[in-house]
Specification:
single chain, six-stranded parallel sheet, 16% strand
């Protein structure tokens, strides 16, 4: 079904993309660069991406995802959802994205159990109107009340840690958008 669907083809990298990539404080590994190139090729094609990036803890999967997220937000003016299984992981991703994207006009929200009810409502309203470019969250993102103006990319961190119900909701998201899954534990279900 996904192969038959036509997705959104993002334009080639803009100058900001190179600027962001040059701001990475470490030397990217050959594997990171290869993964980034393959993801960009997928994003620039019309077929919806469904890619798994597998690497040990600390091997730079997040940086690969950051570059893809940036391309989607700045190149296609689309929204991105980053789904993680734990509150702590969402906090880490949120702070990393805020830090890396600070020089750019990109708006990021966080949806987890540390948010009050009024903060959650505000975030969901800003997602629906398109004021938020990126939302990082736990399975709360899979709630049917969460609506996006124009979701372009779903990044899933450690998908195998979600339950069956959450995975079914993730599948319903996957029909026409690009999906990037990150994992440090390649188990057969994920592959």
């Amino acid at each position: 079904k996904r192969i038959k669907n036509t997705g959104y083809a993002y334009p080639p990298d803009n100058p900001w993309q190179q600027e962001l990539e040059d701001s990475f404080p470490y030397q990217p590994t050959p594997d990171q660069l290869k993964a980034v190139q393959e993801i960009k090729r997928d994003l620039e094609s019309e077929r919806p991406m469904d890619r798994l990036v597998c690497g040990d803890v600390g091997f730079g999967k997040t940086e690969v995802a950051i570059r893809a997220i940036f391309k989607v937000v700045t190149g296609g003016n689309k929204q991105v959802a980053l789904l993680a299984p734990t509150t702590i992981l969402t906090q880490q991703h949120y702070h990393t994205l805020k830090e890396r994207f600070a020089p750019y006009p990109i708006h990021i929200g966080l949806l987890n159990r540390f948010r009050t009810e009024s903060e959650r409502k505000e975030i969901m309203q800003r997602l629906a109107t398109g004021e938020l470019d990126i939302v990082v969250g736990t399975q709360q993102l899979l709630n049917k009340e969460v609506k996006f103006r124009d979701l372009g990319l779903l990044v899933i961190d450690e998908e195998q840690r979600f339950g069956v119900n959450q995975k079914e909701k993730i599948k319903s998201f996957k029909t026409q958008i690009d999906v990037l899954t990150l994992t440090a534990t390649p188990i057969p279900r994920t592959l």
